[in-house]
What we know:
The chain is an alpha+beta fold. It is 19% helix and 26% strand. Strands 1-2-3-4 form a 4-stranded antiparallel β-sheet, with helices on one face. Strand 2 (24-29) and strand 3 form a beta hairpin.
Amino acid sequence: EExxxxxxxxxxxxxxxxxxxxxxxxxRCGNYKLIKDYETERLELYDLKADIGEQHNLIDENPELxxxxxxxxxxxxxxxxxxxxxxxx
Length: 89
């Protein structure tokens, strides 16, 4: 078996989708996935091993992990110079 030399996967989707999705970013480390919605500023945390359908947001149950993943996500966004959506003027 081959493995990838990385601890986390990152996504950045800074626009609305034609499927109804909001602009956002996400990080997955191990079994956990943190999603940041830029329209609502809401964070969602899921244990994908226990909840593959992302139905139970663990943000209030595990704030320390959420903070750690959010910091890693922000560091990655900064490192790739990701554009973050802002208000339309």
